[in-house]
Specification:
- This protein has 71 residues and is of the alpha+beta class.
- The protein has a domain of 40 residues.
- The protein has 3 helices and 2 strands.
- It has a two-stranded antiparallel sheet with strand order 1-2.
Length: 71
């Protein structure tokens, strides 16, 4: 059906859904109900754009050797 993707996008925009936003689909009285269940999830591209090496990089749990580990 050619109309389906365009109609879905128009409906999603009209109710202020965001790309990647998790939803639940239910059927009530022969109607499909779309309910948002949380905030939109970031795409990998968005996560990489937000990554700041000076803030997010480095060893989180710096520790010393315990046994016979090689470094």
């Amino acid at each position: 059906m050619e109309w389906w993707p365009r109609s879905c996008c128009a409906v999603a925009r009209s109710v202020h859904f965001a790309v990647g936003q998790p939803v639940v689909l239910t059927v009530r009285d022969c109607a499909v109900v779309v309910t948002p269940i949380g905030e939109a999830r970031c795409t990998l591209t968005q996560k990489l754009a937000a990554f700041d090496p000076s803030r997010h990089a480095g060893e989180v749990m710096a520790t010393n050797r315990v046994g016979r580990e090689t470094m």
